Amino acid sequence: MLSLTPHMFNRSRRNLARWFTLSMGSILVIFAAILYFLEAKEQLRAFDQELYNTAQFMVAGVEDGLYQEQQRISLEDVPILGGEALPFENRIIYARWYTPKKQLLEFFGITPSEQLNNKLGFQTIELVDAAQEPSQRGDRVSNSVRHNKLLRQLTVPVFQDKQLIGYLEIAASLSPVENTLGSLISFLIVGVPITLSLIGLTGWSLGGMAMQPIRQSYDQLQRFTADASHELRTPLQAIRNHAQFGLLEPIDPNQQQSSLENIDQITESMGMLIRDLLFLARNEGQLKPEALNPVNLVSWLELLVGEYIHLTKAKNLEFTSEFPEQLVMLRINVDLMRQAVTNILSNACRYTPSGGKVRLRVFLASCWVVIEIQDSGIGIPEKDLPHIFERFYRVDSVRSRHTGGFGLGLALAQQIVQVHGGQILAISRLGEGSTFQIKLPFTPKSSP
Ligand code: ADP
Fold first, then answer.
1. What is the pLDDT of residue 21?
2. Rounded mean pLDDT of 232-252?
3. What gap in Å lies between CA 310 and CA 330, rounded to an integer?
């Protein structure tokens, strides 16, 4: 069971890391795909705009007029198709001019069909045989044809005075867009796996951090179960011994009586232990308002202290108490708070040798009311002080067991104070004595 624990936690940690990487990775991949899609769209839009501007620029050079009483189109001044060059000309793979009847009139670049068959508007086309040298009727040949695969083609009807005078078709290589998108893809191909590994590492360390408190409480629970079983096993064994002795025949009635009394005592002590364990297991968080009653703290403590006068006298301890003049009304669960205060007070009496002093003092400190119990007893070693509020922790287990403690008194007191929204702290010096403070939240105005 114990050897399974690290494996179990590692498996949960791996699962957490895996799911974290998977979910964050999916988000990352979706994000990368959207980024790529938007960038491709934007690049194509900008490219189309440029192609459209080129077409407009070319159309501006078309001259339409009467020549020898016939309607004639002159493409002399049209860049690329005429003689004029354009700064972006090398990007244009081909340009064609068709008559209104869609008959080829003039072209530059790859030889087109005599008839315009293409759809109007933008189209992306693939150059099937890129290596083939294009035949041409124009003056120049674009070398870039050999290397480009994808082209963006624009076919527009051209009007003058609302009359169709022809069709212009131009195409440019999409390589700039392909290059930009290629760089983006390379960046994503390298970047996404690196980011995924970083996400995986983060997931692993986050998984570790998430498992830590679970592991701690698991360890605590295991320790608690082991300690509780141990505490219960010892008295059970004692009960068994007494019972077996009582069953022996023939038996002295006095011895039988003594065995039964022992069994009664042990079961009572076991009952108390079980009650404490149940309280520790059930009460966490804060108490519900209906579990709290308004209490005049000073009068209530005075009554409680009265019960200790005899005990301290019997043990020859000097007991003093100090209370504030002010009325301190608090909402507390009287039964629980009584247990917390008596646990600390009993410890003070128990761990203070005859002739020592025990003092109970109540005072106000900013928004707290403090119940302080001070003794001049044996004190607590420095190394044990941080652990005394842990369940089943005993500074000297042999001595503590002898004095009747299970090591649960302070754990219970702490839990009770915490469910009241308060704090408990201890200051101690070995051989000089100890001071325990119960701090409860207090607002004079809102006191009931
Ligand atoms: P127990 O019931 O065994 O006394 P507690 O939880 O009340 O258990 O206390 C835990 C340990 O703290 C005790 O074993 C004891 O050694 C130490 N302790 C508690 N209060 C005092 C005190 N006033 N003076 C010295 N030691 C104390």
1. 93
2. 81
3. 28
